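Subject: Sanity check before I submit

Could someone independently write out the structure tokens for this chain? I want to compare against mine line by line before I put it in a report. The sequence has 300 residues.
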Amino acid sequence: MICASADLSNSDKTDGFLKHTKNMVKGDFSGAFFQAGVSEFTMACCCMGMALHGGVIPACGTFFVFSDYMKPAVRMAALMELPVKFIWTHDSFRVGEDGPTHEPVEQEAQIRLMEKLRNHKGKNSMLVLRPADSYETTYAWKLAMENTTTPTGLIFSRQNIKTLPAGNDYSQAARGAYVVAGSDEEFDVILLASGSEVSTLVAGAGLLRADGIKCRIVSVPSEGLFRSQSKAYQRSILPGNRRKFGLTVGLPVTLEGLTGSNGKVWGLNSFGFSAPYKVLDEKLGFTAENVYNQVKSMLK
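---
Independent answer below. Compare away.
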């Protein structure tokens, strides 16, 4: 494997790989880390070249908001069926004090369109995964490494995330969406999300249950993988006769295809703001209390 970073290895944590190797430098290519500098598009193109050459697994990391600079290369990697691993961190307004220039909002909706676009072999042109905690991340990385026919996008948070309930079967992440452990067998509402929002739904479900509302919680790391499952499986996870509430730090449209016309999505409809992320969580409604309030309102 050769890993690259756009001058952010300490922040995007690709330096974890660097600690086991050294930087490539002029005259010495014995290392396996490529410091690309502030040049996300060039970095992505270099990784595509490595994939075309063969013999290595190329991966590159940067902040998710800078995926904008990489889009032409990502599209070409999808068209050319190149298994580059794109690692995007700092996935939301929780970048905080860096402000709206560094806070992705519409980027997830944009990149997930590549899951819906087919390549010339009739397969999803890209695998996009946004895991809910560190354990789901392990399975997401496994899926990325096993994916040798298309690029993979891995979308990660900046902040720490609470682990999902004990007994969760993370292997089900391979099906794109699954029922989180601790969900009620009989339920009044389905709560669905990807990434860090799943743990917020778990906390919100606790408040709803205390008020007599039973909940199914669904983690959706990859809508593309989920849509590739049988219709029977899709209905078993998201039955059409149940109300659905989605939570996303991106545009609401990111989840509206899953919640349906009789569901509701709480998302972000504007650029972000400069403030500590916990303050923004409260101000923007990404709390267990707001999940409770929104679901109660929807079920009236």
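---
OP: Matches mine. For the report I'm noting this point. The longest strand covers residues 58-63.
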